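The following block was generated as part of the benchmark described in Methods. Ligand: adenosine monophosphate.
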Amino acid sequence: MAKISINLATGSFQQEEIIVGIDLGTTNSLVAFINPDKNPQVINDTGKGLLVPSVVHFNAQGDALVGNDAKEFLITDPANTIFSVKRLLGRSYKDVAAHQDTFSYKIIDDESDSLVKIKAGDKFYTPIELSAEILKELKARAEHALKTPVNRAVITVPAYFNDSQRQATRDAGKLAGLDVLRIVNEPTAASLAYGLGLDPAQQKTIAVYDLGGGTFDVSVLSIQNGIFEVLSTNGNTFLGGDDFDRAIVYYWIESNKLDKEAVTKDSGLMQSLRLKAEEAKKALSTQSLYNEKLRFDGFEEVKPGEIWCTLDKQTFENLIAGKVAETIASCKLALSDAKLTTAEIDEVVLVGGSTRSPYVKQQVAAFFQREPHDQINPDEVVALGAAIQADILAGNRSDILLLDVTPLSLGIETMGGLMDVIIPRNAKVPTKAGRQYTTSLDGQVNMKISVYQGERDLVRENRKLAEFDLKGIPPMPAGLPKVDINFILNADGILTVQAIELRSGVKQEIDITPSYGLTDDTVEKMLIDSITHAKSDVDQRMLIEARSEGEQLVYTAQRFLDKHASYLSTDEIKNTKIHIENLQQALEKAEKDEILKKADELNEFTRPFAERVMDVAVSAAMKGKSIDN
Ligand code: AMP
């Protein structure tokens, strides 16, 4: 992508900036670019390898070390060596608490929903700062290898990343000195690497199966007119090749008749066994038997000796069959969410190191009934696709739009704590939607706007993303202000909420960086909950609506009596008050049908009065007088 152009002012040659593509992974990260032959290529900074382990180590002075050098400290200084930071991006302690034991470093719980912090040495770091360290290293490597400054990048994220996680990724890029031109979904990038979507005439449905070291996800995409759309995603953020390694370790502990409790307590021995297990797993991707010995120094009452690390292909496949079946179950769910059958999938793309295991490949091929694309190195495919996306953004390719869908509905709280959906779940992004609201009290000058994400009818069952006040609405009677609320969800999946009072032009806008994120398990749970509670939600919604209507009617009727009593007879006033009281009693009892009945009665009774006032108003207006409303 390096283009040479002539600076017309000076007449000198100048090199155009290179935009890199970055795969910021849980285990490893990579940076790629389009080489002068117009092919995507992962940058290999002399001798340092293509993969940069996503590991950050802090020494006593607080200096950061990233990559393979940092990985060494995982054993010698685990408390100050941060790995898997991607799992913490945009998350609260509550979100990750259940998995605290999988992290060797300290995650800080400040007993709030705010974002987690990580302690290393005597300092606290946010996941954004830690991700920025990794990105800085990638930037430096790219600059060193390409011998040119690198300031702009495309960064990939899993398709299921929510607004908060996307924003956190963008912020990390900014902190690393990178202008992040686009956040792209990993499955979209992988498809691009295979050239899928580059031909605008192509119409395809693609399943991208991504099984890495610690995470699994599957996405169903469709491409139409060069536009990518994520139809559905599914997965498990705690399932991957590491589980395979663990299964092998426990198999060896058993086959060598070792004391499981004693061995698992010896972290050094466990680590050596894990490394051997990974070696065995990789070997079994090309051979049918692995047979090695592991010497160990002994522990507690166990004498030093040797562990036979023997594993044949069939046993390995039996060990991992359950986990692989889980991934296939996710594929099924993703298809049913996208309302598609396997026969409707045109292409299957494999991503992630664990798809190198032939058993995984076979199971995926068998499920989708087609051979998956596996020609490109599954570790590199996302970064290569990101480089292609960078190239598209640099204007070097025909315009290709990347479209995604939002996994959960977005809306605001309305009367009685009801969720008013503005952008429904699975809406294509970028998208913009809005609705008009008004005030419920006379002279109301502020309006609280609370933004939620979720499928339930009551906001308290959903997740609050943000809250702000639209201030400075000029005092007007209830119902008169016109407040337009617009939701703008951009291509990165980041939400901007705008509120504007049309009569006065008072405006307020926020970009939502949710106070904490959602795990994909939570998304799934929220969806399931919305189905299980559908009936009770409807009942509750109807009651709340009846109540709000009733309360509003009591308010209006009382206001009417205050202002226009002179138009009514004493009896009419008395009976109106009785009807109001009846309605108030029904409201207290919270009986939907009774509220509606009493509201109807009050309405019926007072309708002629309203007409009477209107008539007077009209005739007064015709006489050139005005009457206050
Ligand atoms: P990723 O997160 O995509 O880098 O994938 C890393 C995972 O892929 C780790 O669990 C590796 O052990 C696994 N992996 C790497 N190479 C192979 C291989 N040849 N066969 C099976 N698994 C592999």
